[in-house]
Structures are given as C-alpha cells and as structure tokens.
C-alpha cells in the first residue's frame, strides 16, 4: 500500500534559497571533514610518537589507527541520538549541535599534553575527544543530505544530494594544504614540538563560520510538513527498523565503498607509501590534494548524471569501475615515481567518487520522510564504523603477507563488490519514486 506525500507546491514555504541552503550544508560537512582528516593525516605520521611513544613504531602506528577506529565505533550511537533529534526536533537544530560538538572537540585536541609532557593523560583525553567527534559525525552526514535535498524539488534532489559530498574533498584539500605548508615552513623538530597543534586550533574560527551559515537558513519544508500533518514518530529509530530493515541493509552496503575508499587511500596508503614504497610524506599529500581538486569538478557532474539515470545506477557504475581497476592500480604503485603516483591517485579516486557523489541521492530515495534522518544516519554511521577499522585491518593483512603489493587491493575489491550488489538491489526497491508531475510517492510501510 502506498500513500502520496504532498507535492512540492503544497509544502510549507521556505525563505531560504536552495543554493544558499546547499552552501550551508556543504560548508558544514567541509568543517567536519577537515577536522577528521587533520587527525587522519596526523595518525599516519605524528600521533603514534606524540601520544603512544612507549609502544614503539609498529605499536604506536596500530594505536593511532585504533584511535581513528574509536571515533567510528561510536558513530552509530551518535546516529541514533541525533537521528532521533532530527526526526523529532528538526534538521536545522540538530545540525547546529553536531557542528558545534565537532568544532569544540577538534580545537581541544590542539591543546592536549603529549606523552612526554603528561604521560598517558594525553592519550586518555585524546580518546575521549575522539569519542565526541564520532558522536558528532554520527548525526552530521544524514542531516546535511536532508538539509540540501528537502529544500529542493524531487526532480533536482539527486544533484543537491551530491553537493554536501563536496565537503569531503574540500576538507581533505584544506587539511593537506595546511600540512604541506607547515612541513615546508617548519623543521621536523618544531612541527613535532608545537606545530602539530595549529591545524586543530584552526577548527575554532571555521566553526564560527559554519554556525553563522546554518543559523541563517530555515527548517526544511519536508520536516515542516511532517510536523503540520502530525506524522512524527514517538521513536523514529524503532519505526525505521520495523518498517524498512532490508532498505537499511542495502543503504549500509551502498555506503561502504564511498567511505571505505577514503579511509584506505587517505590514511593507510599515506602511511604505506612512506614506510614501504619510499614516497615522501609531502609527495603523497600533493597527490592526494590533486585528486581532491579533481573531485570538486567530478562530484557535481556525477550528481547531475544521477538526475538523468538515477542515483543507484551511478553508485553501481562507480563500484564496478573500481572493482576492475583495483589490482592494476596497486600494481602500478610499486613503480615509485611521482607521475605514476599522481596518475594512480586520479584514476583510483574518480571511480569511488562516482559512488560517493550519488550515495546521498540513493539513500534519500530509500526511506520515508518521517524517519529519514534516523535511517540515513544509522546506515551511514554503521558503514563508517566498519570503514574506520580498514587502516588497522589492512595493516594487519600487510604484516601477515609481508606487505605484498596486492594486499590493499583485496580490501578495496571487497568494498567495491559489496557496494555493487547493494546499488543493484537499491535500484529495485526504491521507495521514493517520482511521478511524471514531480510528486513524490512513498509507501506507508514496506
């Protein structure tokens, strides 16, 4: 049985232009990504010696990657908390909380004492702040997608669902540029002594900008309609599991490649490239930055393409392409030259980006509006929790295989295959079809 949701014309009016809402959403996800990538870059190079020095080089690296995983583990809890708030209190109010927690937690990391200054106290506080970051991230992504899509017309929402995805490359570029500048401007001794704090402290002024932008926009018309029609669930989290368990599993699988490839490339591959392949840290940052700059063009293009053929198909094409080039890409990385590195990063980044760009549109189409915040947040956060341990798992796999060239390819191929199957399934169980007159049709239950 299906029910028709109100047509766009009958939804409560919003005084916030769609483009301004999309910008506010993207700037917020950029700050979240910057904060998270700052730590990812540090974990691959500095966090181990600074906070886990007694564990040695290998133990410190594992501890640093595990600290990344801690934030991912608590993301489902943050998704449940902020997903409930988003479906009960509103998208905009919830996103103000998520961005505030992330900005403050990141800034405080820049003030922590190292092991040399206070022993294990700094490591304990670091883990606690990573927990706060993880809780925040649990509610940020789903809300950002809904903020952009629920202000737009159904016909264009696949494109606007891709706009917040720009936050990831923007955050990656900003954090990489900061580190490139710092490593060129400061000697390694000063960078390890105090310079590492600067990128974390930059989160405070960036937080002020993000809060201002989100305070200037309205609540989404879709949530206003849910409130006015008294369709809010008392416990959206429970309704979501009861109504669409299969869709949740599909959304989880569809998200794995987009999130996991970032975790693999921007964290593990940087450490692997320095310690095993012989690249310099600066070369890897430059290659990553070039790939991120390319994403600023490809993500909107893939979002536009999703409006033409559907988000699920774009995700599937990206997963299939990644699966085909995975092992050739890692084989080429063995030939340690900078042009090969940049070319590999570009080719290996475009195809997972295709799946990443259309992910928000795919998930938005799967779920009903009165528990959509919870559904998007939980599915994405669980996928992120799994992906958070990819650097750790890949390191253990590399250690057990003697770091043979194909060991990261096994991980990336598995992620690609799961996302490919999930996208294929999503294209067949889409629960928010658009009729010819632009009206969105949703089922009362699945």
- What is the H/E string? EHHHHHHHHHHHHHHHHHHHHHHE
- Report, as a whole number of angstroms, the end-to-end distance: 8 Å
| Total DSSP E strands | 2
**How would you write the strand order of the largest sheet?**
1-2
**What's the rounded overall pLDDT mean?**
82
The CATH topology comes to Growth Hormone, Chain: A
CATH class division: Mainly Alpha
Helix content: over 70%
How many individual helices? 22
Quickly give the CATH architecture. Answer: Up-down Bundle
Structural category: mainly alpha
Unreliable residue stretches:
1-13, 432-446
Q: What count of domains describes the coordinates?
A: 1
Shape: globular
Main beta-sheet strand count, sense and barrel state:
2 strands, antiparallel
Tell me the β content. under 5%
**What would you report as the Rg, rounded to the nearest angstrom?**
21 Å
CATH superfamily: MFS general substrate transporter like domains
What would you note in describing this structure?
The protein is mainly α and 446 residues long. It has one domain: Growth Hormone, Chain: A, CATH 1.20.1250.20. The protein has helices at 18-45, 47-51, 56-73, 75-88, 91-109, 115-118, 121-149, 157-162, 167-185, 188-195, 197-201, 203-215, 221-228, 236-243, 245-275, 281-309, 311-332, 338-357, 359-366, 372-387, 390-401, 407-426; strands at 2-4, 441-443. A two-stranded antiparallel sheet has the order 1-2. Helix 15 (245-275) packs parallel to helix 20 (372-387) and helix 16 runs antiparallel to helix 17 (311-332). The protein is globular, with a radius of gyration of 21 Å. It starts with a strand and ends with a strand. Residues 1-13 and 432-446 have low confidence and may be disordered.
